[in-house]
Amino acid sequence: MAECRVVLVTEDASFGSRWVNELKQVAEADTSSPIRLCFSHCKAAQLKAQLYLGETQIVALDEGSLGEPSLDACYDEVRNSRAEIDCILLTDGKMPDEDAEFEGVISRAESNYGVVYRTLRRELFERTATPFADALKEYVYAAKDSWHTPGHSSGDSLSSSPWLVDFYRFMGEHMFNTDLSVSVKMLDSLMEPVTVIRQAQNLAAKTFGARHTYYVTNGTSTSNKVVLQYLMRHGDKVIVDRNCHKSVHHAMIMSGSVPVYLESSVNQTYGVYGPVPKAKIFAAIDENPQARLLILTSCTYDGLRYDLKPIIDYAHEHDIQVLIDEAWYAHGRFHPQLRPTALEAGADFVTHSTHKMLSAFSQASMIHVGHGVKNFDAPRFREDINMHTSTSPQYGMIASLDVARKQMSIEGFSVLARTLNFAQEIRDYVEANTPFKSLGVNDLCDVSVQNDGIKLDTTKVTIDVGCGGLSAPKVQAVLFNDYGIQVEKNTHNTITLLVTIGTTESKVLRLKQALHKIAQTASGKPMEYSHQSIPALSKIRVLPRTAYFADGEKVALTQDAGNSDLVGRVVCDEIVPYPPGIPLVVPGQELSAEILAAIANYVYERKDLEMHGVQVINGEPFIRVMTPEAEARGKAELAAL
Q: Any idea what the Cα angle at residue 540 is, between residues 536 and 546, rounded to 5°?
């Protein structure tokens, strides 16, 4: 039985003891509840300590004894420390502060403690409900015969086949019998939710602090495209971090918008691409007053996150909406060390890869709409989602979003406290027992952003192995081949570990053992390496959409491309070395000699990388560029906007 603590904050010890004792008696008689409620009381000065106990799930504030200043301070403490839990007002009859949003109000004079108990229990039941996941389980356990899609019919086509039964057993029966069809009406429709999916999305909005939340089963790549399709029109300007996910670049092609690119800061020592300097963001806003949208990624792949509030406030002062890609930060709301989140800082739209750090399946994502969005057109936003959503969604994925939300709403603080402790344990071990270095925010940030209030999500642990004399690609391979450990990523001299809510003590022990043995092979002499920098972006000459959809012509990329006929041509495709995944050029951009030299270097010298956007024909690399005629028309189109 799950145990949840209800804490009464009161300065009246006699009232607190009576309230707690009466409710304990009611709770002891409730033997059928799946949740066991435990009761205690404390003074206002002790509230913070109670909030740092993960089992604390409801805080009741005694208006009668606290008084207005103390009541307000306690309310703020609850919201700032544990935004996900319920805050109940015990009132002496006055109306609560309009600025304070309590989950429930109970009369301080209520003598029927059974009513009080059931009211508190109901709050927890509502928060821990999983409407869609429960409906899915109910349907599966009802064992209905399937005369609808999908064709495997709850897995029967595999379980009855001698050739496929091994795969059926490997995946498990529920992988197949939860793979259902829109024909099952009791499971609602992701395209037009009215029952259990809508209820689940409403619970998610409350949990993550949004006005509206939408489930997406095509990943945050699709979530970003949906938001841009809703906000942007042909020729609209969008200010965007160059180091954004490629889905944002794709969305600008699809919408016909005009990008104003912001150059990211770069730590050349480690090959880490970080936030855009705040001064550059403000300057871009000043120089582009007609821009409709600002897009930033926070936190970055390496865990660097902006001081968002002043940036968002400045954008809003200029009537620019803000989309924050929080693909790597869905967990941020559930521990005070990680807050504020983008929504709490005032972002208009936020996208979450719920699967990256939480317990949802891969591709499971959410779009959150902020409380401050003006004139939000929900029906049109729904239609934008439907343009990108399959009419045959994976129901197990939807259920995983539902239960991932439940987990964070009820035990998010506890699991994140454990996760953060594991991350710190790994850092401490590296520093004390290896010649390697655990990198902090000042190590990862370029000097251009070191006064911008950048913080580090410490669940991303980046270790410099180059300082100990080892190559990071080699360490990555040894960890995988010799110790069965797969890291998140590596640069030339660093490896990055993603410490998640699924990290266990045993995994940490095995990692320590592996690092200890690898450290014994290190020379201790720092590795010398010249980092391949990304050249500055050149001018956008043609709308990305126009350039991408142009027929174009394919021109060979030679090793001496910087001196070739490609110089000055307008590129049709995005060219991206991966890793790090940052575009060298985007559609509509002019190819400079510097950019072409960098592309050639990556293609001919870096066989360890993927080069997206470079076409290989009969073993020879080609780049697609606009024809002179199409380029002239495209330039005229952009000039007319």
A: 140
- Reported for 93-102, long-range contacts at CB under 8 A and 24+ positions apart, including other chains, are 94/63, 96/63, 97/68, 97/71, 97/72, 100/72, 100/75
d(C-alpha 101, C-alpha 518), whole Å: 53
Identify the CA nearest to 8 among candidates 81, 64, 54, 84.
64
From the list 357, 409, 367, 501, the residue with the least C-alpha distance to 130 is 409
CA-CA distance, 244 to 221, in Å (whole number)?
Answer: 11
Query: What local confidence, expressed as pLDDT, does residue 534 receive?
Result: 75
107 & 200 share domain: no
Single out the residue of 156, 35, 27 nearest to residue 86, CA to CA: 35
What's the CA gap between 17 and 42, in Å, rounded?
Answer: 10
Judgement on whether residues 137 and 49 belong to the same structural domain of the protein: no
pLDDT tens digits for 230-260?
Answer: 999 999 999 999 889 989 999 999 999 999 9
Q: Please give the model's pTM, rounded to 2 decimal places.
A: 0.94
- Cα–Cα distance for residue pair 91/88, rounded to 1 Å: 9
Cα separation of the two ends of the chain: 64
Taking 50 as the pLDDT cut, the residues of the chain under it are none
Cα 252 from Cα 286, distance rounded (Å): 21
- Predicted pLDDT of residue 581: 74
**Same domain assignment for residues 159 and 204:** no
Whether residues 485 and 510 share a domain: the answer is: yes
CA distance 211 to 508: 38
CB 601, CB 507: distance < 8 Å: no
Same domain, 443 and 376: no
Is residue 441 domain-resident?
Answer: yes
Q: Residue 403: name the closest of 361, 367, 445 by CA.
A: 361
**C-alpha distances in angstroms, 222 versus 246, 401, 403, 534?**
11, 16, 21, 27
Same domain flag for 295 and 271: yes
- State the Cα–Cα distance between residues 237 and 258, nearest whole angstrom: 5
User: Based on the domain organization, do 138 and 217 belong to the same domain?
Assistant: no
What Å distances lie between residue 439 and 211, 276, 494, CA to CA? 37, 20, 9
Contact by Cβ (8 Å): 325, 245? yes
Beta strand residue intervals within 441-545, DSSP E: 455-456, 460-464, 489-490, 494-498
- Are 6 and 57 spatial neighbours (Cβ–Cβ below 8 Å)? yes
Sign for the CA dihedral angle at 9, 78, 354, 421 comes to negative
Angle value at C-alpha 149, between 148 and 153, nearest 5 degrees? 85
User: What interhelical angle do 219-231 and 378-388 show, nearest 10?
Assistant: 140
Asked if residue 39 lies in contact with residue 66, where contact means CB atoms within 8 angstroms, the answer is no
- Domain span at 609: 544-640
Q: Where does a domain end: 364, 380, 408?
A: 408
Does residue 436 fall inside a structural domain?
A: yes
Query: What integer best gives the mean pLDDT of the chain?
Result: 94
Q: Extract the tokens encoding 481.
A: 């081949």
pLDDT per residue over 76-94, tens digit each?
999 999 999 999 999 987 6
243 Cβ contact list (under 8 Å, min separation 6) = 264, 273, 274, 276, 297, 300, 582
Helices (H) and strands (E) in the chain, counts: 22, 25
